[in-house]
Amino acid sequence: MSSRVIKENQKLVLSLYRRCLRSALQCPKFSNREMMLKYTRSKFGDNKEYNVKDFDTVELLLKQGEEELTSMNQYHQMRELKKKGEEPDHDKIFGVDH
């Protein structure tokens, strides 16, 4: 079972990595784009040392990565709305329910 879980986690990590790189590439300024690409590569590189059989840590790191990706994408959404001259609905973008 553990080899199947390890392979599934590897797919999830690779998918998250690709989505983070794509999100970083959406930064309009070259310097911001390069900074976000370096940050993404650094974060994933730093976490290469974890034991792939430490499922709790892998799950935690995936969750943290998804949260950071969500934040990056929320920034992109707000920037696009402002670019169009629209006022961003912060509650909708950040998923706030009233």
From TrEMBL:
A GO cellular component annotation in the UniProt record: mitochondrion
Compartment(s) where it occurs, according to its Swiss-Prot or TrEMBL record: Mitochondrion
Top-level taxon: Eukaryota
InterPro entries, per database record: Complex1_LYR_dom
Gene Ontology BP terms: mitochondrial respiratory chain complex II assembly
Boundaries of every Complex 1 LYR protein domain copy: 13-70
Pfam families linked to this entry: Complex1_LYR
Mitochondrion recorded as keyword: yes
Keyword Transmembrane helix: no
Keyword terms of this UniProt record: Mitochondrion
The name this protein goes by in its record: Complex 1 LYR protein domain-containing protein
Organism: Cavenderia fasciculata (Slime mold)
